[in-house]
Amino acid sequence: MIPHNLLQAIPVHDDIFDIVCLAMPCPFVFPTQGDAEWGSASHFIADAKANAGKCMIAAPAPGGATYLAGVMFLKAAGIDQDVLIRPAEGGNDAATALMSKAVSIRVAGQSDSARFVRGGQETALMVLSTDRSAVFPTSENITDIGPPAHYAI
Asked: Most buried of the four, 38, 120, 138, 150, by CB within 10 Å?
């Protein structure tokens, strides 16, 4: 886990995130367990604000694009002080942490999460895009939760 005071010290700025996102071929997804109480990213954000420190996100590869997407989502949603980040060694580690309920949500690529969503093990809360996802058409996108569109890929 990364303490909030250290998270604030990570130099993640909009211009850095924009450059990282240009290299990504598809948007990031924020899935939760298939049986989770949250039906949308908006519900997750409200719960995280109401229960500061109780929600945790698994973000693979600290410093990588997926990890930065998680950090930027938390900052854009205004919950970077409320949600703990659990660095994961990779996508499989993050998926295992989510399935075992060690974390509340994870950051993933669409292709990584799609098989779990189709199988009912995960629910895609949000896609980090300004457009609806063809893969997850019922999931919210970044503009649904209100942050500036420049946080989207």
From this structure: 38
